[in-house]
Design a protein that fits this description.
Blueprint (H helix, E strand, L loop, with lengths): L3 E6 L21 H7 L9 E7 L20 E5 L5 E5 L16 H8 L5 E6 L14 E5 L7 E3 L4 H4 L6 H8 L4 E7 L1 H14 L3 E10 L3 H13 L3 E3 L6
Parallel strand pairs: 1-2, 1-8, 2-5, 8-9, 9-10
Antiparallel strand pairs: 3-4, 5-6, 6-7
């Protein structure tokens, strides 16, 4: 059996109905699927990584920082690397130290049962860099049994602008991981980009349809096609929208 990492992308309150500021339609439907996949009597993951979108208030992706532009408009921006790109502008979301950035409570409970197999990947921490992929995050570890507090264990690429190599790739290779199983939100953004990173880092990449939901149905469909055309696998398609 090849060693497998379970990657849980951005299951945070701001992406979840009913109150998330960027709630993904039907996003709550993935929760029971994920909770089941964290049942230790059924599954044996070598590594579990939960990613968190983790923005400062002045993040480049927030429409509020580009007045008079509005959320869901697109605009051309230049990021900290000097790259011009088309940014989808978002409502303020997943701001550090707010409830919106926290992982869903039962997910935290489930993760605690796995002890030091669990890491967090936090991304989007640099004010002038958009970061959808968990592979662009820095790694923190799940620290105490009672409190969901975390200790940073790798350099924050957001602080240094350009990671030489993805901290998550380094970590998964260190652990001998060959395969990743991906669930989370949103299919058309962070799940897509995480899957593409995993494929280009040569991990055998499996995305679980019932465990993902997207923001736009059309982009969600395209995202799954793109993952498959690049060599990933999406199982149980059709349950994701
Ligand atoms: C995401 C939009 C903005 C995601 C993050 O988690 O898919 N989407 N930031
Ligand atoms: Zn974001």
């Amino acid at each position: 059996m090849s060693k497998t990492a379970f990657l849980i992308i951005d299951v945070q309150y701001d992406f979840l109905p009913p109150s998330g500021s960027l709630a993904v339609p039907d996003g709550e439907a993935i929760l029971p699927v994920i909770h089941d996949l964290l049942d230790q009597s059924k599954w044996d993951w070598s590594v579990i990584v939960a990613s968190q979108d983790y923005h400062p208030q002045n993040h480049i992706s927030f429409a509020s920082n580009h007045s008079p532009h509005k959320p869901f408009e697109k605009m051309t921006l230049t990021d900290a690397r000097g790259t011009s790109y088309e940014q989808a502008l978002w409502p303020d979301h997943c701001i550090q130290d707010t409830r919106g950035t926290q992982l869903e409570a039962k997910l935290v409970e489930d993760l605690k049962t796995w002890g030091d197999k669990v890491k967090l990947a936090r991304k989007g921490t640099h004010e002038k860099l958009e970061a959808y992929s968990a592979f662009e995050g820095y790694i923190t570890s799940f620290q105490t049994p009672d409190e969901p507090t975390f200790e940073q264990t790798s350099a924050d690429p957001g602080k240094t602008v350009l990671p030489k190599q993805s901290p998550l790739t380094i970590y998964l290779r260190e652990k001998g991981i060959e395969k990743v199983v991906i669930v989370g939100l949103a299919t058309d953004f962070c799940v897509l980009q995480t899957a593409l990173s995993a494929i280009s880092a040569s991990f055998d990449t499996l995305v679980l349809g019932p465990g993902i939901r997207g923001i736009s149905p059309e982009d969600t469909h395209k995202a799954m096609q793109r993952i498959e055309s690049l060599g990933g696998t999406v199982v149980d398609k059709g349950k994701e929208n």
